[in-house]
Structures are given as structure tokens and as C-alpha cells.
């Protein structure tokens, strides 16, 4: 066990005794929703994991220490404290050296989960290749982490604001399997379809677990994407969403929004332009992914 990691007692006991554990990210708390929706969403995701038979381990950097398994008070702190840093792989050492706080991204959560020995992680959607990346080279660190860190990431695909075709090409190039859970088509976060296929389809948590066991037995490094489409009753209309995203992208360009500021800007504008419907969809897909991740962790 990495001595620099702080494990909550419930997580430490679960890992020691073989009880299934599911990692959860903290960027969704500090940067995903406004308060109190952010804290409520985190608490509900943890409840869903417990209900499905696993121990939740929400991950963050607190006082410079990677912390696996947050208390309700720590989650509330992240949800109410402004300007918490986003912590990807590149940020963790600096935050540790300064004794600072950070909310872990998909990449940061994957890395710390692997250090702690957690094999399954539930999030909303992965980052990816941004539209126009041919000029900007704006590619999420999530994709690179998936190529190097052996954690299965249960998600609702990639966010609709990204170039999904190029995102899948990047994952293929780096040997990251993209598995569709009860779907032949890669989901696009708010919507169930994207027009792009997956590498293979599975129809049960047991099938996912068998795949992950085979992958590890063959010493095939890196992670895996388990793409779980948002439930039909919570999905947004694809045509409407395309119009909203096009409008938000144009605004970002006009206002000179670039780099790491693009995603939060676009998601905020999508929330406004959909009258809050995107926020509810986001919450529901997080809960669905948390439930599936717990079932996979139990099957492992």
C-alpha cells in the first residue's frame, strides 16, 4: 500500500477483506454542479453504490494527501469551498508538496484508485478529443490515463461537446478496449447514441468481470471503458442538443474561452440553454453508472 495515501477505515477494511469497492471522483462535487446539488449528487451516488452491495470510495486531495473515501463533512467542504483546484495526474505532486486541496478528475481518480488497489471506477463521462483538436491539440489527459492505468471506468460515454469519432480513434490507437453495456453503439453522455460503434458488447456485470479477469490474467496493461448509456427516460433529444452545443461552442470561440476552461463553460451554457434538463440527465447517468460499477465490482 502506498504510504502517502489516506484510506478511510471503511475502505481499508473492505480492501483487506475482499469486499467490493467502487471509486468515485470529486471534480463533480467542486466543478460539476452548484451547491447544494453537488453535495446531494455525491451523497446519492455513494448511497447507490452501497445499495448495490459495494463500498463507495470518493477520492480527492485533502491537505496535500490523496484521500480515498471521504466523510460527509469532507464532501460538504469540497462542495462549499470556492476555487478548489482540479487535480489530474500532472497536478497531484504539486498539491502534495504544498499541502493543498484538489478535486480529482477522471485521470486523477484513476491513478489514485489504482494506487489503493481499487479496480472499478464510476464517473459521468470521460474526457476526450476536443472539436478542432487538429489545430489546438486539446486532448483530455483522461485518455492517456486510460492507456496506462489498470482501472475499469464505467461511464455514459464521452461528453457530447467532444469529437467522439476522434476520441474513439485515440483510444483504439492506444489499445484501450471500449465495451458497450447492453449497447452496440457508443453513448454520448446526455444521449444514448453517437453514430459510432463499440469494440464489443456485453449484457451483464458478470460478462464485464470475466473480460476484466481475462485482461489482467493476460497482463494486458491499461484501463478499459465500460460504456453504459443513459436511461431512455432521462436522455435528451439529440437534435436539440446538437443545436445547443453548436451555439455554446460559438459563444466560447467569441469569448476567447480555451484550454481547461472550455468544458466547464460549455456545460454551464448547456445547462442554461436546456433550462436545467442537462443537470438532471447528468445526475441520473451518474447514479446509473455507480450502480453498474458496484455490480461489476461485486462480480469481480
Q: Which terms would index this structure?
A:
single chain, 300 residues, alpha/beta, Indigoidine synthase fold, 2 domains, 11-stranded mixed β-sheet, 13 helices, 14% strand, globular
What does this structure look like?
The protein is of the alpha/beta class and about 300 residues long. It folds into two domains: about 120 residues, 3-Layer(aba) Sandwich (Indigoidine synthase fold); about 170 residues, Indigoidine synthase domain (Indigoidine synthase fold, 3-Layer(aba) Sandwich). Helices cover about 50% and strands about 15% of the residues. A hairpin with a 2-residue loop joins strand 3 and strand 4. It starts with 5 loop residues before the first strand and ends with a helix.
Please, what is the average pLDDT? 94
Return the CATH class of the largest domain: Alpha Beta
Query: How many domains make up the 3D coordinates?
Result: 2
In percent terms, what proportion of residues is strand?
5-15%
What is the structure about, briefly put?
The protein has helices at 9-17, 27-32, 37-51, 72-80, 89-98, 106-116, 133-136, 141-148, 164-173, 205-217, 238-254, 262-273, 277-299, and strands at residues 6-7, 21-24, 55-62, 65-68, 85-87, 102-104, 120-122, 152-155, 178-181, 200-202, 224-227. It is α/β, with parallel strands linked by helices. It has two domains: 1-118, Indigoidine synthase fold (3-Layer(aba) Sandwich), CATH 3.40.1790; 135-300, Indigoidine synthase domain (Indigoidine synthase fold).
